[in-house]
Amino acid sequence: MSSSPIVRHATLADAAQIARLSTQLGYPASVEVFATRLQKLLDSPTHAVLVAVGDDGRLVGFVATEQRITLELGERVEIVALVVDAEARRGGVGKALIAAAEQWAQDIGTPEVFLRSNILRPEAHPFYERLGYTRTKTQHAYHKPL
Fold it and tell me: Which residues form the N-acetyltransferase domain (predicted)?
């Protein structure tokens, strides 16, 4: 990329490109599935999906955020997804998306941003630390299909 990406809120028209980007990170699904999920997030006041647009108009990344409140920790925004196109990495896209997510958190009055980074992606950990994030713990994640 020759210039900083334009970061904007996602629209339903972005579903195909978000699906393409998500597949790069190992989360493949059909465009229809992503469109359904994206519409639910766009309709939710506690979620934001922000996209980075490259010089050619294609999406080069996205970040998804969720405003959360818990009894033990209070209110915060969690970055639940961050994907930068493989061809656009190390070009400032991730930094711009994180900054936009942080701005959204400030705009809605949330005092903290939180994120999780898979231990299988060690190259991402120094990136977050350079942006001022502090590792607070390592944990196991469990799921149960219902």
Answer: 5-146
Q: What is the pLDDT of residue 2?
A: 57
C-alpha 114/C-alpha 117 separation (Å) is: 10
Q: Which amino acid is at 75?
A: E
Structure tokens at 46: 């506690």
CA 48 to chain centre: 9
For residues 82, 126, 133, 94, the Cα torsion angle rounded to the nearest 10 degrees is: -30
Residue 32 structural domain: 6-130
Helix 31-42 and helix 15-24: axis angle, to 10°?
110
Q: Is the pTM of this model over 0.85?
A: yes
Q: Can you give the CATH number for the domain in which 16 is found? A: 3.40.630.30
